[in-house]
Amino acid sequence: MHGLAKKVLLRKAVEPLVPVEVVHGRKRGFSIPAAAWLRGELEPFARETLAPENLRRQGFFQPKPVARLLDEHVAGREDWSRQLWGLLAFTLWYERHVEQEPPRLHSARMEVLAA
């Protein structure tokens, strides 16, 4: 880091390859089109992941308000994409890392010790 300027080496390395406005321009955010995805191709996935039986099993979120958020978002009445994305991420994380049994360690050493 050079003072408050970040990524000096990266900017110098790409300088000959990209327009000057990009190299010396200010930082710009990048976001995914979650709102459109949740109204389109990810809607079935979101409904399955946030299904009432899943939410009841996990016990953190009430199914009716979550369904209302999803319905309002898909209908285009509200943009609840950030909230829905967070709910999806948490629900999937919890399913993967808490509900599933941890993988069993298996190694050749364990087989030798068992023999």
Q: Layout of helices and strands, plus pairs?
A:
Elements: H1 8-14, H2 20-24, H3 34-39, H4 43-49, H5 52-58, H6 63-75, H7 81-99, H8 108-114
Architecture overview:
With 115 residues, the protein is an all-alpha fold. It has a domain at 34-99. Helix content is 62%, strand content 0%. The protein contains eight helices and no strands. The protein has helices at residues 8-14, 20-24, 34-39, 43-49, 52-58, 63-75, 81-99, 108-114. The protein is elongated.
Question: How can the largest sheet be summarized?
Answer: none
N-to-C series of helices and strands = HHHHHHHH
Q: Please state the overall shape, judged from the principal axes of the Cα atoms.
A: elongated
Task: Write down the overall mean pLDDT.
Answer: 88
Backbone CA Rg: 23 Å
Structure at a glance:
The protein is an all-alpha fold and 115 residues long. The protein contains 8 helices and no strands.
Give me some keywords for this one.
115 residues; elongated; 8 helices; mainly alpha
